[in-house]
Amino acid sequence: MEYQININYQFTAESETEAKDKAKNYVGNNLEVKAMKDGVYSPLEIASKCKNFRKAKKEHFYVFFLDTQNRILGKETVSIGTLNTSLIHPRECFRTAILKNSASVIFVHNHPSGGLEPSAEDLTVTKRLVDAGKLLGIHVLDHVIVTTDSYTSFKERHLF
């Protein structure tokens, strides 16, 4: 679980000791700790959750399952392919989404070559998945390609 603390407080003091005392008093009286919700808001956040296969030598295709508030319900490996291809079918991509009552999904796959440009096959598969999601009532939020040190988002590039 991730936590966050934000302090934006400015004050004056006669000495460093007085400043430390004022800061301690302020924090002690005003500190609120709350858990960060595990929502997904950007492709960068999704890419950061894919460290386990970003450097893989074969293509890995994952699905993230999300609820109505974009909280992650789970993720699943749909396919592990070869150096430059992976066999993807909507049936496998949406089976668990249906079982988990997912409102939406995000697809992610790696490019072992390090290239971020979607292939013609990537574009075709994504269109099929988006169409299947529409039929099932499960919104496809994005398809993200990850590499060792970067990512590209189909949604950001307006590819669907």
Annotate the secondary structure layout.
Layout lengths: L2 E2 L11 H15 L3 E2 L7 H6 L11 E7 L5 E9 L9 H10 L4 E7 L9 H17 L2 E8 L4 E3 L7
Parallel strand pairs: 5-6
Antiparallel strand pairs: 1-2, 3-4, 3-5, 6-7
Strand line-up in the sheet with most strands = 4-3-5-6-7
User: How many helical elements?
Assistant: 4
Order of helices and strands: EHEHEEHEHEE
Could you give the distance between the termini?
32 Å
CATH class of the largest domain: Alpha Beta
CATH architecture classification of the largest domain? 3-Layer(aba) Sandwich
Number of domains: 2
- Could you give the count of β-strands? 7
Shape: elongated
Radius of gyration: 21 Å
Secondary-structure class: alpha+beta
Strand content: 15-25%
CATH-defined topology of the largest domain: Cytidine Deaminase, domain 2
So, the CATH homologous superfamily of the largest domain? Cytidine Deaminase, domain 2
Mean pLDDT: 88
Helix content: 25-40%
Labels describing this entry:
160 residues, alpha+beta, Cytidine Deaminase, domain 2
Describe the structure.
This protein has a five-stranded mixed beta sheet. A two-stranded antiparallel ribbon has the order 1-2. The chain has helices at residues 16-30, 43-48, 90-99, 120-136, and strands at residues 3-4, 34-35, 60-66, 72-80, 104-110, 139-146, 151-153. The two termini are 32 Å apart. The longest helix is centred in the last third of the chain and has 17 residues, at 120-136. The chain folds into two domains: 3-35; 43-153, 3-Layer(aba) Sandwich (Cytidine Deaminase, domain 2), CATH 3.40.140. The mean pLDDT is 88. A hairpin with a 5-residue loop joins strand 3 (60-66) and strand 4 (72-80). It is elongated. The chain has four helices and seven strands. With 160 residues, the chain is α+β, with helices and mostly antiparallel strands.
